[in-house]
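thread: overnight batch results

M.L. [08:02]
morning all. the overnight job finished for the chain we discussed friday. pasting input first so we're all looking at the same thing
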Amino acid sequence: MAGLLRRLGRASALAVLGGAFGEQHRCGAGGAGARRLPLGAVAAVSGGVAFLYTWSSPVTCHLEEEKQEASEKVALSPDKWTEFKLHETARVSHNSHLFRFTFDHEAKLGLHVASCILTRAPLGEDAEGKKKYVIRPYTPISDIESRGYFDLLIKVYPEGKMSQHIAGLKPGDVLEVKGPIEKFRYSPNMKKQIGMIAGGTGITPMLQIIMEIVKNPDDNTQVALLYANVSPDDILLKGKLDQLAAAHPNVKVFYTVDNPSKAWRGGAGYISKDMILKGLPAPGEDTMILVCGPPGMMKHVSGEKAKDWTQGELSGLLKETGYTEGMVFKF
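M.L. [08:03]
and the structure it wrote out:
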């Protein structure tokens, strides 16, 4: 970690796409004709500490798409738990950490946008002596085209069984993973306008979709994100989000915090009807609103998902402002 922090300290403030983890990946089907390419990076400022997070830039491989897809190696399995080795960690905020897990450098993880993975950790034994497990879903924030690694951004809660387990892993330890689990299948230009409401680590699927949009020059989707957090120090990957908004006219980002500091210049308080009316696209056939965050925020904004994890009834602010169930997706 000391080496990681030294590399962060040497990174230029202008290098919004400089590398924190200093890793490289390969391009090519099965490694044939592969060449070394530098990773990009994400600048995230939390709690006054500049953190550069490695991000893979899109890679062009000179192979026919169909042949490439047929020969690609995929690390994930939807049917069995696979072990992935922890390579490195970095602190993003006072309670959030970035975890990089590695696998065969010639393989992709096997995700689509926007899907998640399931993680599993042992949790003692039951009365019959059988192993018990805690299972939790997470959305990787690394590019789905990345080879040989994936990154998880996790908020570590004092009582969080899985987050505490992952936080306790050391480089070389393994995490059991299964997937992908399909959430929201994004396709280019599926809607003219996409509004996003995120809270805390609910930013992860939103970032996955935004990155998919901006790397495709033929995708003209307009994106507006409302991102809510407890305090300015809790805003995850703010540097990356600001860089995306500055570089792409079709991406707008608005922040609001419950406990603003004196220097804070964004919104204050919970997401409100006024924020939705001013910041998100109006209800319509070519509008989709995506929501992801803690249960309290979901209930306030859109209503929670049903007990069987289907979308459930739309309620809250989005219903009050005229959106219908067909216009809203709850992660």
